[in-house]
Amino acid sequence: LYTEMLPLFERKAVGAQEEPSGPTAAKAQGTPSAGSGAPSDSEKPRPLIFALMRNGHEVIRGLARDCGECLANGDLEGFKSTYEKMSKWEGMHANMEDGMDGVAKGFFAILNEKFDGLADKEGLTSAHTELHELNDKLMVCLNNNGELADVKVAFEALQAHNEPHLKHEEKIMMPKVMELKKSGENLKERMCKDILPCARAGDFEFWVTTAMQVLEKHAEGQPRARVFAHALWGCATDSEWAEWQPWIEAGLSKDLYTQIAPLIARNLPLPTQPEPVLVDGIAVRTSSYTSAVTY
């Protein structure tokens, strides 16, 4: 139900303005009118900051589907590669919830502080302990070159816990996010100070790019990748966005990135480009950037 309501929330909830009509609306949808550039920040819909958490669940679900397809096709090597990605991404997401000593307190600590120990009472933290154990068993099976049948059993055992765990979190956490907003809590500040640093402490480029790839592939008719990218845009400083935006572009198809680029554009200088290197006497760059940040 929350997924179905996301487009409505993005336009009207958490203090967003009504969607403008005419040329301004066209710009906000990623189709600027003739002679115009990107919409100004004031013309854009307000980002759903906590989509980084909720749509993070869709990243996990999408990767789990990909893992299941590999097993169904008897592709053990494909499963191993995909599951390693799933395990790494879900581990970073779990850190955002559990918190990390010396980095940030995490989402569960906020729920405990604001709602009388809610995360502990609902078993949110303890559920992660069981997930970690099931993940460890599966990784041992893979690292010991387990047979396909054994890997299937281990993965099915993990998923039997994982999906109910995700649904339980959504049932508890998302209504509380709305309560926090209504109470005047600064959700952006909470995300930037108490939650997102736990992802940034790890392989943040992987976290961003993988989210874009999976949310586009498993959109299921929803603007999941756009909403996630917009939430990141809402959290970033200008200097951070100059670094993060190329990762978003790298994770998306050209068509989808072109559609959402005006929504997440800032008039920033390009990141510093590396010195070109010579390949067969031809100067090439070791990596590339586009001028998308100036839409």
Structure description:
It is a single chain. The chain is mostly helical and 295 residues long. It has 13 helices and two strands, in the order αααααααααααααββ. The chain has helices at 2-12, 23-28, 51-72, 76-98, 107-114, 118-121, 124-143, 148-182, 187-200, 204-217, 224-235, 238-251, 254-260, and strands at 277-279, 282-284. It has a two-stranded antiparallel ribbon. A hairpin with a 2-residue loop joins strand 1 (277-279) and strand 2. The longest helix is centred in the middle third of the chain and has 35 residues, at 148-182. The two termini are 34 Å apart.
Helix and strand string, N-terminal first? Answer: HHHHHHHHHHHHHEE
Helix content range: 55-70%
Which structural class fits the helix and strand makeup?
mainly alpha
Dominant shape: globular
- Average pLDDT, rounded to a whole number, is 83
Helical run tally: 13
**β-strand number:** 2
**Radius of gyration over C-alpha positions, nearest whole angstrom:** 20 Å
Unreliable spans: 8-36, 268-295
Largest sheet: 2 strands, antiparallel
